Amino acid sequence: MAGKTVLLVDDETGLTAVLAKRLASRGLAVSTAASGEEGLAALRGNDDIALVVLDINMPGMDGLETLRAMKTLRPDVEALILTGYPSVEAALEGMRLGAYELLSKPIELDALHARVMEALSRNAG
User: Fold this and answer.
1) Segment 39-68, tens digit of pLDDT
2) Which of 55, 92, 112, 115 is the most exposed place for a label (fewest CB within 10 A)?
3) Are 111 and 103 in contact (CB under 8 A)?
4) Measured distance CA(19)–CA(11) in Å, rounded
């Protein structure tokens, strides 16, 4: 089924690689990007991306800037925001920009997988 790829955007490439491998082992198609700019390029190049999991704190283009640009480019794409430094301001801004949910790092794989599946089912509707 088209439109079911999950894009992980995080400058912590070790974490991203682990999450990508674990989500893929649960049957999801997963792509990764190490920056907001790379994430936008991936989104432009792949119409199958249905969900973006974004870190807020990245050098260069941060997660909220990236989310804003992604929603302009592809309003249909769902987004989950991951952060090691959760704040009310970031959560509110993320929701205002159209994020499905803000999640705190470190996150257990089962919790992330559950949120990913919820967001993907929303996107399918």
Assistant:
1) 999 999 899 999 999 999 999 999 999 999
2) 92
3) yes
4) 13
